[in-house]
Structure formats: C-alpha cells, structure tokens
Amino acid sequence: MRILVVGAGQVGATIVEALHDEHDVTVVDLDPARLAALANRFDVATIEGNGASRRTLQEAGLLESDLMISCTSLDEINLIAAIFSRNLAPETSTIVRTTNEEYLEVWRERQLDVDFMVSSELETANAVSRIIGLPAARQTDVFADGQVQIVEFDVVARNEGDGIVGVPLREARIPRDSKVAGIIRGDRMIIPRGDQRIEVGDRVVIIGSPDAARTWGDSLSEETRRLDDIVIFGAGRTGRAVARALVDQGLRVRIIESDPKRAQLTAEQFPTVRVYHATGFDPEFLDRERIGQSRAAVFVMQDDAKNHYAATLAKLHGVSFTIAIVHKAASTEVFERAGIDVAINPRQVTAEEIVRFAHDPRTRQVTMLEGDRFEILDVTVRPESEYADQPFRTMPIRGALIGAIVRDGQAIFPHGDDVLRAGDRAIIFTESARATQVEKAL
Amino acid sequence: MARLTRARLRRLFRRESIGVDFRSALGLVGASVKYLSFALLAPTVVAFIYSEPPWPFLGAGAISFVVGWAIERSGRHGGHLGIREGFFVVSVTWLAAAGVCALTYLLTGEDQLAHPVDAYFESMSGFTTTGASVLTDIEGLPNSVLFWRQLSQWLGGMGIIVLAIAVLPRLRVGGRQLLESEMPGPEIEQLSTRIRDTARRLWVLYIGLTLIQITILASLGWTRIDPSINLFEAVSHALTTMPTGGFSTEARSAEAFGPASQWTITIFMAIAGANFALMYRALIRRRPGLLLRDDEFKVYVGFLLAATVAVTAILLEDDIFGGEEAVRHAAFQVVSTMTTTGMASTDFNAWPLLGLVLLIGLMFIGGSAGSTAGSIKVVRHLLLGKILRRELDQTVHPEIVGRIRLNRHSVDERVLRAVSSFILLYVGLFVVGTLLLVVDANRVGLDLRLIDAVAAAATTLGNVGPGLGIAGPMGSFEPYSDFSKLVMIALMWLGRLEIIPIVVLFTRQYWRA
After folding, report:
1. What confidence tier does B189 reach under pLDDT thresholds 50, 70, 90?
2. Is residue A295 domain-shared with residue A394, that is, in the same domain?
3. What angle do CA A261, A263, A269 make, to 5 degrees?
4. Does residue A268 sit in the same domain as residue A322?
5. Is the pLDDT of residue B301 over 50?
6. Is B242 helix (H, G, I), strand (E, B) or coil?
7. What are the residues whose beta carbons fall under 8 Å from the beta carbon of B32, sequence distance 6 or more?
8. Same domain membership, residue A339 and residue A261
C-alpha cells in the first residue's frame, strides 16, 4: 500500500516507524531537519513543503496513494489536506488528526468527508479511563468513544443467588443494554446461547453501555468501593476529556486548575465534579483537601516538568496510583523511572490509533483478551456483506458474537429483531483464529 | 484652583440634561391610561344588567380617556424608550391605573369608599392584585361596583404577566432573566415584536384559564352540586383567582361556597402561582414533561404540599376541623397565602399561633417567577438556598469553584448577587413597614398586636391580601389610620413591581445623563 503522511512531528514519526516496513511511505513536512531525521532512520521518501498546498500533495504522489494521513499539530492544515485529497484523488482514504472535539463531532455526524478522524484528547482520555477502569473488572476497553464498553469479570461464589449466576441466560437478570459476549470456563471459550448458564469460577466478557457495565461491576464486585475518588490536575482540553471519560464511568472526580477562568468553565461543564481553583504544588492545599486519600491522580498540565513535580508531591502525600500525561518523547522514561506509575504520551496514543486504522481501514479497533486468544473487533459492515440487512435472530453463530453496533454515531445493543445494516460499525467478540474470517464475512 | 473646579462642576451640573426621556415615558403612561378607560365599559354593562346607575363608570371612563389622551399628546412621540424610561413607565403606570380606579370609586358616592385614601387603597390593592380591602360591608355595594373591583385585579394580572415575562427581564430585574436563554428567537432587534408576541400568547392562556374556571364554577352552581354559587359569583371569583388577587364579592370570601367550589378555586390558585411561560409550553405546546424538569416548579409544588400537610396536622391536632374539612381548609389557606391570592375558606384568625406563623412564613415564599403571584418567589428562595450551600462549602474548602445551576444551566454570578440583594431589600422593607405600622398605631391609639402589624406589612408587601386580627380574612383594613394606609399602599406598589424599578427612581444616578 502507498501511504502519504503529512506531518513529521512525534505523531508522524511514530506512524512512519510502525508502517514503513510493510508499506511505501512518503512524508511531507515544512521542516527539512525533521525529514532528514526520518529519512536517516527509515526507508521512506520525503518531500519538503506545505501539506495544505495542492502542488506539494501532488508532488508527493497523492494520486497514486491508497491512504493519506494528515497528522500535523494544526487541525486546519490537516483538514485542508484531507479536502484537497478528496477532490484530487477520491479513491484515496483519508485520516485526520484533530485536537478539536467539535471537528470530531461534525465528522461523526457525517458532515466532514474524512474516512477516519482521531482526536488526541479523546484517545488520551480513553487510555486513562482504560487504566483506571472498573473496580471489579479484570480488563476493560472502550469502543465508539466510550459508548460501548467491554469488561471482563471473574464470577465468585459470593455472586450466587443474585439472579445471574446459575440461571439460564435468557432468564437471568442481565442489565439493560448489555450482552454476555463470552464465557471463559477453564480453557474453553463459550459463545453463549439462551440456555447457557454462568457458573461460579467462570470469567465473563460483557459488552454493554457504560451504565450497564457499572451495574455488572456492582453486582459482581467483591468490594463496594464504587465511589472511587480520582483527582485530575489540570483542566485543559485533555484534562476535561479525561474528566468526561471518568465521570461517564461513574467515578467520583475532582479537578484542580490554577487558571480561574478555566476552573469556572470546567465547573460549569461538569455538575458532578468538584473543581478547585488552586495549584497542585501547594502542600498545605493538598493536605487540607485530603488529596492523598484519592485512589488515583492524573496529571494533565501543559508542562512535563510541572506534571512531574506535582505527581511526585502527590505521591509524597499518599496518592497510591499516579498517571501523568507527557508531551516530550523523552519524558516517558524519566517519569516512569521517577516512580510515576503510568506515563501516557498523547501523540503516541494518537499514532497507535492511526496505525490501527491504517492496517485495515474497515477495522477501527482491536482489543486482545486473555493474552491473544480472543479479539474484539470494530468492523464497518460492507453493503455486499451476506449479513447486511439480516436480523440478528437469523444470523448463524460461528464462533463470534456481535455485541453492539454503532449507527450514525449512536451505540445500539441489538436484540433479535434488530437488523444489521451496511455502514454499521459492528463490535464483535471472537476467537482470534476466526478474526480474519469474521472481518471478511462482514 | 479648588474654587475654580467647584465652579466648573456647578456649571456642568446646570448644563447637564436629565438622562431620562421623561416626556416619551409619560406619553406611554398616558396611552395606558387612555386604553384603561375602555375597560370601564365592562362595569357599565353590568350596571345596565342590574339596573344600577352606570354614570360613575362612564364618567370616570370619559375623564381618564381625556386625561390619558392629553398626557399622551403632550408626551413626545418616537422618543427614546430604553431601560431607564422602562423603570419610570412601569412604576408610574401602576400609580396611574390605581388613580383611574380610585376616581371611579369616588364617583360612585359609596360611603365606604368616599375617603380618597380608602378609595386609593382599594384601587392599589386591586391593580397590584393584593386583595387587601378597606370595605366593611362588601355585600352592601352595588353589583357593578363589586364587578369593577374584581375586574381591577384581573386587569392588574394582565399587566403583571407582561411585566414579569417581558418587561422586568429586560430591565434586568426579577428571577426570570436567567431563564431568558430558554426563550426561542433572536435578541434585541425584534424585542418589541417579541414582547408583544409573548404577551399575546400568555394572555390567551390567562384568558383561557379564567374562562375554564368560570365554566367549572358556574356549572357547579348550575348542576346544584354547589347551590351556593351563581353565575355572577363564578365570574367574579374567577376574575380574582387567575391574577392571584383575592377580592371577593362575599363578606365571608370563599367560606360562602361549598367544598366543590373551594377545591376548584384551590386548584386554580395553584395554577395561577405557576410560571405562565412554563405552563404555556406544558399545556398549549403539549410538553407536560417540562413541568417535571423545571427546578422551580418542583420546589413550588413541594412547598405547597409540605405546608398543606403541616397545616392539616395542626388543624387535626387542635381539633378545629376533622377529615376532609381539615385537608380542604389547610390546602385552601396554604395555596391562597403562598400564591399570594388571599381568599379564605375559613376565618383562620382563630387558628393556633403555630398555624398563623406558618401562614405568615408562606407570605414570604410567594409563587413562581413569571406568574401573577407576588412576594419573593420560589426561584429566589431556591437560588438563595444554593448560594448558602455554596458559602458553607467554601468555608471548608476555600478553593472550590462552585457554579450554581438552575434547570441545568449555570447561573450568572450577577444574577445571584441580584437575588441576594433583592431578598435583603425585601426583608428590609418588611421591617421598615412593620415598624411604621406599629409606631403609627401607637400614635393614633389603635390596638395592634405585634403579629397583626407583622402580618399587615407582610401581606401588603407580598400582595397577599388579608392580614390578621382586625384586618383578618373576614375583617377590614378600614380601622388603620390614613398614614398607615399610605404606608401599605406604598408596600403594595413596591412589592408588586419587585421593588427595584421603583427604588431606582429615587437614586441620583438614575436621572443623570
């Protein structure tokens, strides 16, 4: 595949690194130094020029490319490159990186003719929320911007007699908008039918709305620490996106922001969040507000050094789990060496997301469960698929289960009468061995 | 140097033009008086029906038409009518309307209303939809005069709807401004058409609800379910229910009617105390779900229910009423007092002190913003509660940023400040009013208990109506001195116009350019 990458910053470099082996990659950037650095490391073609210029794009071989990825740090440049690409080469798929959630919204409403759009803020938020996760869950992942959640739970003896364990699934009190996608019993994986029962010792995989996942968590959790207290330092765009993702999970969130205007705005946006107008560097404040008692702290300020200092201070105050957002590529190592539990680089996360899409444009997200024995796929249904326009009831089960579909940006948790349509994004739980087969069938 | 500056200042002052387009504002007041004169045709018709002399209405109508027309003519046309002029127009219109009404009373030659202060008190009580009365023998008045008295409240209610929905929010007064964002349509440019449009729609609702109430009350009488109510009384009481007025054509107010009519009036009083814009959307646009999503409405209903339960318990405990009667009288008095209507289904003067204090407390709550009810209004209490809660929170957590929300919208800090200062101003006026009544009662040797003075000030400032003691629901404000009556007239006027538009007129900054 021929791939054109516009932007050779951190995101662009990570993408190039992941894709240069299997694909022909051309990189466009204004900065010759960056291009040279890339060309030295990888076998890629480089063009010096503006990505928002038609001539540059043509020079870079846009017409022959299968995929155009615009991932500069400027939203507008990325969008213009995508628009030119659509006009000049309608067959070429386009991926746009954005930092603006509004663009993402517009794209989801199909008002922007782009094949895939990635927001660094949202990907970062999802990464944080995956790490913090649900209390009882062993592993969680989110799809469709958090509208669909995949959770694995262990069923323990305590759960008996609550209407779920030991009852045929069709009679079990399954929370609304959720499905048991799989039951893992010993070495076997069962794609359950209505007469299947969940037993003590099983591990269950649930696909459902965030609310339903929480209900599952509540009923299967051994602990009842649901009101987990997460503190976010910094309420910039990323900070707010993280807050949104955590609030959507039903977690108790506090935000500390030093800019008064931004603090006001955040308080306005999140009615359930406690917002403090303070800095995270004031030990007296941290002490007074018992920040040390929180379960986890997320550091989302602009400056790596500030994040580092605040995170270390928070550790001193007793915060057991710290997640920091880093901006410079080199920072990740520094942070983790310094004892910060997780460092997330938004550019890295964004690049990974783009790469995932680039592998098979129809498959947006793949999650591995149980090592790599099972996969959750997010596949867009082709019009030619034999399953398009079929009701779910009549769909033969072949080692795979459609847990949810996303239609026009809205998640639907299908019942037997619902119909799968072309263009739907299906979120499918399957054995890894069958993944390719499933992808092809759809 | 200093002298020079002072001299220059003085010169500046002399040259300084008044910053209010006084003549245009007066022109608008004149027009209002002119249009009001047409309303006097209604009692004229009633006078003909009951073969009573129609000339007081015709006379007052003619005089006010001419005077109104003259003022309108002398006023400037096409002048600048902005926020400043708005305060003036609103304040003076209510004074003028009460003046027209008082003139009518004086022309009737009835002894009870022969004294100008009494006539003006009764008129102000009418147009502010208060319902406090100086009459001692209501049933001794001719039907046409009684009808005009009822109609004055109904017309006042129409004015209040425009005031509450369209004018006060523009003048940045009143709790409703913060719900402005909910109102569809563009801002400012189409202001006048919007006001006219909104007012017309809400008037349709107001008139419609009045007609429904007339129909229900009249058919209760017709079908002999409640033989004590006739068509005249049905119309009269519907005219004072929707504006939360409270005037009655009966000396015993709603006590004269049977349970069915009393329940009907209770329900309509409760409706009248709800926000009209909200009801318009809920009833006419058929989106009843909005009621349940409106914070103020929920608290409003909550207050009504809680107070009814409490008063019922008091009545049962003291064995004043039993069973349905206790619930009915509790509900009637609670709804009537809180919505600032002021009708009575029983003489609550005889209730235990706890019940009376509760009723006085309700006088300070009032109905919803955007209704015809007076007093502080539920939305302000709701916001005050939230402000206090935030204060307490910030005492412990000084860095916390608390945004106060209403109907899921965050409320502007300036609005919150306005709410706090309004409540302070309101309570301040209440205290001053009580003080003046007590001092004046001492002066003239009127036997006034403290609770009576408190109730009189609260009831007039809150536009409720009846007080306690001599001025109780079956009594009259007649024994108060002229000065006390003037104080209460001022309280009714101030309370009705949400205090600030009037107080502003007495500041120097208002008149300066």
Report:
1. very low
2. no
3. 105
4. yes
5. yes
6. coil
7. B68, B93, B96, B97
8. yes
Question: For residue A264, which residues of chain B lie inside 8 Å, CB to CB?
Answer: 401, 403
ipTM (interface predicted TM): 0.73
Are A234 and A342 members of one domain? Answer: yes
CA A421 to chain centre: 24
Q: Which helix (H) or strand (E) holds A255?
A: strand A252-257
The C-alpha angle with vertex B53 and arms to B49 and B56, in degrees rounded to 5, equals: 120
| Mean local confidence (pLDDT), B151-156 | 95
Considering only CB atoms, B410 lies closest to which of A256, A263, A268, namely A268
The per-residue pLDDT for range B2-18, each reduced to its tens digit, is: 555 666 656 555 545 66
What lies within 8 Å, CB to CB, of A170 at 6+ separation is A194, A195
B200-221 per-residue burial string, b: 16 or more CB within 10 A, e: under 16? eebeebbeebbeebbebbbebb
* Domain final residue, candidates A308, A324, A350: A350
Kind of pairing, strands A148-154 and A203-208? antiparallel
Q: Say how many domains are in chain A.
A: 3
Is the same domain home to A35 and A107? yes
Domain harbouring A65, CATH code? 3.40.50.720
**B394 shares contact with chain A (CB less than 8 Å):** no
Write the residue in A268, A271, A275 that is nearest to B400 by C-beta.
Answer: A275
- Would you place residue A127 in the very low, low, confident or very high pLDDT band (cuts 50, 70, 90)? confident
B181 to chain A, any CB pair closer than 8 A? The answer is no
pLDDT of residue B180: 43
**For chains A and B, what is the number of CB pairs under 8 angstroms?**
30
Is residue A249 located within the same domain as residue A343?
yes
Confidence of residue B182 (pLDDT cuts 50, 70, 90): very low
Q: Contact B401/A271, CB-based, under 8 Å? A: no
Q: Which domain does A313 fall in, by range?
A: 124-130+226-350
Last residue of a domain, one of A316, A331, A350: A350
Higher per-residue confidence, A383 vs B196: A383
Q: What is the mean pLDDT of chain B?
A: 87
Tell me the mean pLDDT in the region A315-328. Answer: 89
Per the domain annotation, does A149 fall within a domain? no
